[in-house]
Amino acid sequence: MDVLYFAWVRERIGHPTDTVDSTASTVRELVEELRGREERYAVAFADLDALRVAVDQELTDFDAPLAGAREVAFFPPMTGG
Amino acid sequence: MEIRVQEDPFDLGTEANAFAARQTGMGAVVTFTGIVRDIEGGLDMMEIEHYPGMTEKAIAGIAGEALDRWSLGDVLVIHRHGKLAAEDLIMMVATSAPHRVDAFQAAEFLMDYLKSRAPFWKKEVAGGSEGWVAAKDEDEDALSRW
User: Fold this and answer.
1) Total structural domains in chain A?
2) Which of A34, B65, B95, B141 is 20 to 30 A off residue B76, Cα-Cα?
3) What is the CATH classification number for the domain harbouring A38?
4) For residue A69, is it within any domain?
């Protein structure tokens, strides 16, 4: 699946997308896998309260299932308008 | 509804007039415009990032809910991304309705939801440093009134 990062999450990780082969069944498990990749991922995902997640472009939460998901995006709270 | 997510500037007067002109049987048009606010010491640039694909869907979802909840003729949302300067127009919403209360309330609803449910992120560049604009608790709290 494709994993996308926006705003400071993208900056901390250093690139905008990863393509991952994941066995994670929830977003939270995917975060654990990503945290284990490299220090910069651990830093970006240090505080989940500061992050929001979308699965297949729908805002959801960290307990959301990933079965069949094609795209997961992580980002800070949005500041539109 | 019409949703436009674009890098290019837009002309408020042209958009508002065109929106009003294509309504029929509507007694009210309300528009709101968001402007890049300058900061003390001067803002060099505001950079707006968004999530292509999700942005349009999220805004269409919010506009669809407004159309369900109020008696409206139409909804227009224009939101820019990319590099903007102080005093540039960031975005606008326009609503039309037979009566003004629906048009006003729907415009406020749209703005409250666009603030914290449309995937945009603002970065301010000033005096050689840059920082992401933090979401405000009151913006999240504002959603509870709807």
Assistant:
1) 1
2) B141
3) 3.10.20.30
4) yes
ipTM: 0.95
Domain locations in chain B as residue ranges: 2-145
Residue of chain B nearest A9, judged by CA positions: B132
Q: Per residue in A21-32, pLDDT tens?
A: 999 999 999 999
Sequence-distant (6+) residues with CB within 8 A of B69 are: B106, B109
A74: Cβ contacts below 8 Å, ≥ 6 apart = A3, A4, A5, A6, A9, A31, A44, A45, A51, A52, A53
Scanning every residue of chain B, which has its alpha carbon at the shortest distance from the alpha carbon of A81? B115
Q: Mind telling me how many Å the CA of A79 is from chain B's nearest CA?
A: 5
Q: From the candidates A8, A59, A72, A79, which should be mutated to test the interface with B, based on the most B CB atoms within 10 A?
A: A79
Name the architecture of domain B2-145. Alpha-Beta Complex (3.90)
